[in-house]
Amino acid sequence: MTQALLFDVFGTCVDWRSAIARAVTKALPGVDALVFADAWRGEYDPAMARIRAGDRGYVALDDLHRENLHRVAERFGVRAPDALAQAWERLDPWPDTVAGLHAIATHALIAPCSNGSIALMARLAKHALLPWHCILGADIARDYKPKPAVYLAACDALRLPPEAVMMVAAHNNDLAAARALGLKTAFVARPTEYGPNQTADLVAEADWDIIAPDFLVLADRLVDAR
């Protein structure tokens, strides 16, 4: 039986693109905010890849976001305030997220398993009203998904074996990494995470344990599976 659910956050629980573009519009008038938001997000994985590869010690995502912000701003020929990096703490939940998490939380423990730091996740939860029972993820593992240590550290923190934990994500590669370690998996598509022209993660690419259109349906299917 599933006793806890871990959630990817950026893209799965919250719409980062719209909120980041809104913050860019306010801080950097005259810049194409959506293009800037996409470029900023585009630096996300390369920055973590250097840490995953061991070429750099662990650096919290807050700091990587700030470094990436200035790297992208230089390409755009503008100067961005450091405070703009805090926009990642003020992202909007998808319409089903909060109600769905509350429904799921009545049946199991829920926690983020995000590449965001504990500080970032706590402030984002306060802003978006995400009802986590605790905050797990990269900070406790001192590494970044999809490295095995991140998922296993979350299971260990909950004192649960991987088979009692379900990873929920809108990204097939995140679920594949979790499944390889014995976690159960649930796919919830977010087909506009990267805007109207998104081409990846539009559908489930494997027979994940649960495939649901939103968190409310996921909650129902968890009950049905008991």
UniProtKB/TrEMBL annotation:
<dbReference type="InterPro" id="IPR006328">
    <property type="entry name" value="2-HAD"/>
</dbReference>
<dbReference type="Pfam" id="PF00702">
    <property type="entry name" value="Hydrolase"/>
</dbReference>
<comment type="similarity">
    <text>Belongs to the HAD-like hydrolase superfamily. S-2-haloalkanoic acid dehalogenase family.</text>
</comment>
<keyword id="KW-0378">Hydrolase</keyword>
<comment type="function">
    <text>Catalyzes the hydrolytic dehalogenation of small (S)-2-haloalkanoic acids to yield the corresponding (R)-2-hydroxyalkanoic acids.</text>
</comment>
<dbReference type="InterPro" id="IPR036412">
    <property type="entry name" value="HAD-like_sf"/>
</dbReference>
<dbReference type="InterPro" id="IPR023214">
    <property type="entry name" value="HAD_sf"/>
</dbReference>
<dbReference type="InterPro" id="IPR006439">
    <property type="entry name" value="HAD-SF_hydro_IA"/>
</dbReference>
<dbReference type="InterPro" id="IPR051540">
    <property type="entry name" value="S-2-haloacid_dehalogenase"/>
</dbReference>
<protein>
    <recommendedName>
        <fullName>(S)-2-haloacid dehalogenase</fullName>
        <ecNumber>3.8.1.2</ecNumber>
    </recommendedName>
</protein>
<dbReference type="InterPro" id="IPR023198">
    <property type="entry name" value="PGP-like_dom2"/>
</dbReference>
